[in-house]
């Protein structure tokens, strides 16, 4: 069956559909789905799927198609991609919305992130149908909104509300076809954004010994924060810390009374975001114990996300890695990444996931975004093999 499905894959259909979807402009902002959403709906209906528009908020129409399997107890596979893209920006050598073919690649915004993935999934379903494949489990195909702005009515809504309202099965495995050059991303860093204000005591700039410089104290605090242990993880780079903003003092000849800085801390598991915040508080307490002139007047966080990791023993991960090795020269290896994207919501519900797909992650969101046709076709072959092996 796998061979028959592969022989039914139509490269020209795939290329043309990728171009057509790029040409339907969906920059976010402004996130206008009025053209792409009906387009995806009729595409999925044309493939013979049961289609629902899952709209948790006006103007946020996720489109989801279901191909029900023969075994009601069979596993459900979700193949997922987002319909929005980042704005085109400047400096392109080509028209970013024309989906021109040059040097063996399709160029334009969304060519690799990720209209190509929607086209691949549609092409695979078309080939599966033509080959007479009957899935044992269920296949869900989702085209979601608002990935690029991490909105609450995209994938989050589909996974937490939409599927339930439709009475559709919850996915046993969520394959998000984001461009990773087919690395299989399964572990994602956590992050906390923290704001700290240090209070000093003002004095004449000519006699700093009479005051307490909040800036000097902040310098010592940041030195200690940067000296925190950087924890490591087998699948992703070690913890990182960035000072995003720093502000303090009023005038050159006054000892500064106040200094405020914001920090972006990215950390690997096992560590919850609460524990990550505690690491900051420990450094502060330590400094307060040893320096009576050191005072923190404000400590707050304004963003926190726990690290997430899927079950690394999930058999689907081996299946996927095998398909990647069988149909490309990529290593088919497990990896980690900064952000889980749509799969975050599945993992929160205990679902198993992989974020993996064709396309070079280093050129997305740039004016060099393209997808080599070879990678596009290879991508369809890998997804087709995976669906047959997972649901067959
Ligand atoms: Zn993306």
How does this model look, in words?
This protein is α/β, with parallel strands linked by helices. It has two domains: 2-187 and 308-391, Zn peptidases (Aminopeptidase, 3-Layer(aba) Sandwich); 190-305, Alpha-Beta Plaits, CATH 3.30.70. It is 33% helix and 24% strand. The chain contains ten helices and 16 strands. It has helices at residues 2-8, 11-23, 36-46, 115-130, 155-166, 214-226, 273-290, 315-327, 343-348, 373-391, and strands at 50-55, 61-67, 76-82, 101-102, 105-107, 138-144, 173-176, 184-188, 190-199, 240-248, 258-267, 295-305, 308-309, 334-337, 352-355, 370-372. The strands form four sheets. It has a six-stranded mixed sheet with strand order 1-2-6-3-7-15, sandwiched between helices. It has a four-stranded antiparallel sheet with strand order 10-11-9-12. A three-stranded antiparallel sheet has the order 4-5-16. Helix 2 (11-23) runs antiparallel to helix 4, helix 4 (115-130) packs across helix 10 (373-391) and helix 8 packs antiparallel against helix 10 (373-391). The chain is elongated and about 85 Å long. Bound molecules: zinc ion. Zinc ion binds next to loops.
